[in-house]
Amino acid sequence: MMNRPMGFARKKRLGDMLIEAGVITEEQLASALEAQQGEKKGQRLGTVLTDLGFATEQDIKKVLMDQLGLPGINLGEVHIPDEVRELVDEEVLRKYMLMPFGINERNPNVIEVAMSDPSDIRAVDDLTVITGRQIDRYVATPSDISSTLDRYYGSAEAMRVAEQYRKERGEKSKVEEENETADVKEAPIVKLVNQIIEQAVHRRASDVHIEPMERQVRVRYRVDGVLHEAMKHDVSIQNALVARIKIISGLDISEKRKPQDGRATSIVDRREYDIRVSILPTVYGEKVVMRLAEKKALSMDKKDLGFPDSELATFNSILSHTNGMILVTGPTGSGKSTTLYTALSELNVEGVNIITVEDPVEANINGVNQVQVNEKAGLTFASALRSILRQDPDIIMIGEIRDQETADIAVRASITGHLVVSTIHTNSSANTITRLVDMGVERYLVADSVIGIIAQRLMRRVCPKCSTVDDATESERRILGITDPTKEIKLRHAGTRECATCGGTGYYGRIGVYEIMPITTQLRREIVAGTPADTIEEMAIKNGMRTIRMGAVNYALQGITTVDEVRRVAYEASDDEEQQ
User: Fold this and answer.
1) Contact status, residue 144 vs residue 101, Cβ threshold 8 Å
2) Which parts of 187-293 fold into alpha helices (H)?
3) Burial (Cβ within 10 Å: 0-12, 13-18, ≥19) of residue 378
């Protein structure tokens, strides 16, 4: 049944509805209204309440649904047809924070509209006049609407901004453009950089790549570990785009011949994001990579890391040690930092002194002393560690063990009563032992110091909306190691159709897959004896260790991911299976 705006005559104010529902108090409403007249002037009450932490967007959505008797909608799960999007200009949609998403099946003269404030009379009246149709109201959160607007209009708006900038610069000569290192406050470029970052957040991107080519500048986003092209611009905006990014990340805008690294912060949808910026000179100009991380996202509850119950118990057992070395290993982008920060947050209690040495410091943790490596000033991992040992630490976190000197100091610190946690680049837990020995650490020291090794990868979750379920093929059975031909196996496969939830990638989100190897007394003897890594791994498996391949296969059999992901993440084991 169509929900017409007939109830507006007896309209309740949002604040009163939230008080009646017990979401906020009268004092909190008064504070929010006061802020609305002051530093948050012009903002909607719902936004102010959310910013102040008095209510969540989901709280407000539920109250509006209950009080107004309207259905809710999650726009992230809806594909909006072109004919619906073309009914209203983007400017109007952003002004009222609403999004038409469908046409009523029984009455084509009615459009279905998601609204952050369905009681906004002016918005409904304007929309009725603009479209010439009646309005069916649905309740959505402002973040959901903002993300949807960005999904459908973000690239187009960025292209318009870039074209506007290009036209404005068109009359200037190339010499003038090169000499004018950065007219960085010019609105179109400022707006373009902001939109690139905002769109990256809304697409759940971990990295933004801005790549100069011969005639164009390409922007790509890494989503769930895979790069996807988002837009291309004329190469004429390259210099100003890079200059703007250098300014916000504190880099030298006049230096174009050397690589540079910097940091910036950005607030998107009222959340603060830390941005690590890397600039590299290439043949056609400077390439920019921006790594985005929500400041609160690196440290989470250890239960949210994705450990199965048995492995969570092993993880807890390793963390309970007061001295020794815990190593987390895996390739770049496998979630090592998140695991380390989560472990530190778990260990961060009043009675311990925690000091970290990182390159760079990826997130700030209250109560933890964090040191940033600065090789130009002579502050390396090794030199910082020597100083840290004189600071009476209980726990030391080393961003990465890269060389023999750092490895030696870390090992000796762990033996002399400190708990040391660090990362190292190897393919498996057992190979980490070999890597430390190859670095020059004596085997008996490795055996005495290391108490546990965690190898990990991140696997993409198959999209729940567009994935399909089919019988496993012979090739898939072989990859999963299933030898019984009579056993029925159903597997999920990534969808290939256009999907609003995953953006057509077939995957949505990631999950950790782990290999945890506690160093038992038996393994210590084998390490000292020089036993090969393969044999050590076999012994650890007999003691209950699950390898990354085992975990990946289990996720595929549960329908959490696909065989393609097993092949991608646990590639060594998969190749071995196919060769047999």
Assistant:
1) no
2) 187-202, 238-248
3) exposed
Can you name the residues that pair with 233 across neighbouring β-strands?
217
Residue 402: what are its φ and ψ, rounded to 5°? -110, -25
Residue 354 in contact with residue 394, Cβ under 8 Å? yes
Read off the amino acid at residue 138. Answer: Y
Two structure tokens written together for 420 = 């040391």
Residue 327's φ and ψ, nearest 5 degrees, are -115, 135
Which conformational region is residue 233 in: left (phi greater than 0), alpha (psi within -120 to 50 degrees), or beta? beta
SS3 472: coil
**Assigned token pair, 139:** 């309740």
Closest CA to 114 of 90, 93, 83: 93
Partners of residue 426 on adjacent β-strands: none
Q: What is the pLDDT of residues 503-548, one digit of tens each?
A: 778 898 888 899 999 999 999 999 999 999 999 999 999 999 999 9
Band (pLDDT 50/70/90 cuts) for residue 303 is confident
Mind spelling out the 3-state secondary structure of 296-347?
A: CCCCCCHHHHCCCHHHHHHHHHHHCCCCEEEEEECCCCCCHHHHHHHHHHHH
**DSSP bridge pairs for 115:** 98, 139
Q: In this structure, are residues 485 and 278 in contact, taking their beta carbons and an 8 Å threshold?
A: no
* 39 — pLDDT class (breaks 50, 70, 90): confident
Only one residue has tokens 């990990």, namely 456
Q: The pTM is what?
A: 0.71
Tens of pLDDT, residues 319-365: 999 999 999 998 888 888 888 888 888 888 888 999 999 887 877 78
Measured distance between the N- and C-terminal CA atoms of the chain, rounded to whole angstroms: 61
Which residue(s) pair with 226 in the sheet?
223
**CA–CA gap between residue 527 and residue 490 (Å, rounded):** 41
List 518's β-bridge partners, or say none. Answer: 452
For the beta carbon of residue 98, count every other beta carbon within 10 angstroms.
27
Torsion sign, CA atoms 494, 498, 500, 504: positive
